[in-house]
């Protein structure tokens, strides 16, 4: 069996110690991200996934927004310091992909394909998963580490304002990426017997 893709899937891990010592340019990385999203499958090829790719001051601005927004959500100053340390780790990375879903397109397909109307919202999330996995794995193939965060919906309004995001784009995830400055943690797996059935 060929296992090239499987080997790459194993290379994709959550890396939290990220830096800016990457060999590629922002243009090269942005192009890789765009191609992966374009080639990830979507239902009826409806292409609902959008991405905003942040580098430099824009990347830092995102994580400053997260830090500021979380201040009122965390109960104590001590807890906030911990949160801030975590967010500063994301800010120390090289860039961030913000993944969005275009809700106008989801709604259009719900209207146009009544038989499948109940599926399009779920399918847009599945399409997100396809795109996120593809981007994350392709970055890993190029020696770039990443981790996936979800500060939406807390940050949605500030981010929309800061980066001029259309109102009908719904923020689904933030993948921050950069040079790998520390290893991934151990990964544990549940029993295959509880997870898979192979019927021959
Ligand atoms: C849908 C989804 C949501 C996730 N959300 C977060 C998150 O909000 N914060 C985080 O640090 N990791 C998040 N992760 C990463 C998982 O915790 C991680 O993938 C899992 O523990 C397996 O570790 P690995 O990525 O190193 O293989 C998410 C992963 C997925 C697929």
Task: Tag the structure with descriptive keywords.
globular, NADH Oxidase, cytoplasm, single chain, Nitroreductase family protein, Nitroreductase-like, five-stranded antiparallel sheet, oxidoreductase, 200 residues, oxidoreductase activity, binds flavin mononucleotide
Task: Describe the structure concisely for a colleague.
With 200 residues, the protein is of the alpha+beta class. It has one domain (13-181): NADH Oxidase (3-Layer(aba) Sandwich), CATH 3.40.109.
What this model shows, in words?
By secondary structure, this protein is of the alpha+beta class. It has one domain (13-181): NADH Oxidase (3-Layer(aba) Sandwich), CATH 3.40.109.10. The chain is built from 7 helices and 5 strands. Strands 1, 2, 3, 4 and 5 form a 5-stranded antiparallel beta sheet that branches. The longest helix has 22 residues, at 120-141. Flavin mononucleotide (FMN) binds at residues 13-14, 147-150, 184, 187.
The CATH top-level class label? Alpha Beta
Count of DSSP E strands?
5
Q: How would you classify the helix and strand content by structural class? A: alpha+beta
Our Rg estimate from Cα atoms comes to 18 Å
Shape: globular
* Strand composition percent: 15-25%
Count of discrete alpha- or pi-helical segments spanning 4 or more residues: 7
Residue-averaged pLDDT: 98
């Amino acid at each position: 069996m060929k296992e090239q893709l499987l080997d790459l899937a194993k290379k994709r891990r959550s890396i939290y110690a990220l830096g800016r010592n990457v060999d590629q340019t922002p243009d090269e990385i942005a192009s890789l991200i765009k191609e992966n999203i374009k080639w990830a499958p979507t239902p009826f090829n409806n292409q609902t996934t959008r991405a905003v790719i942040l580098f430099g001051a824009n990347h830092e601005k995102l994580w400053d927004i997260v830090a500021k927004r979380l201040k009122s959500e965390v109960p104590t100053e001590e807890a906030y310091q911990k949160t801030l340390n975590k967010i500063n780790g994301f800010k120390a990375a090289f860039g961030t992909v913000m993944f969005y879903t275009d809700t106008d397109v989801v709604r259009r397909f719900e209207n146009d394909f009544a038989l499948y109307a109940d599926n399009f919202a779920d399918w847009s999330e599945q399409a997100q998963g396809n795109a996120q996995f593809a981007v994350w794995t392709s970055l890993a193939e190029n020696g770039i580490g990443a981790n996936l965060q979800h500060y939406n919906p807390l940050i949605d309004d500030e981010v929309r304002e800061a980066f001029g995001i259309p109102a009908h784009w719904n923020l689904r995830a933030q993948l921050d990426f950069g040079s790998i400055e520390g290893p991934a943690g151990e990964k544990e797996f549940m029993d295959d017997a509880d997870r898979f059935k192979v019927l021959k």
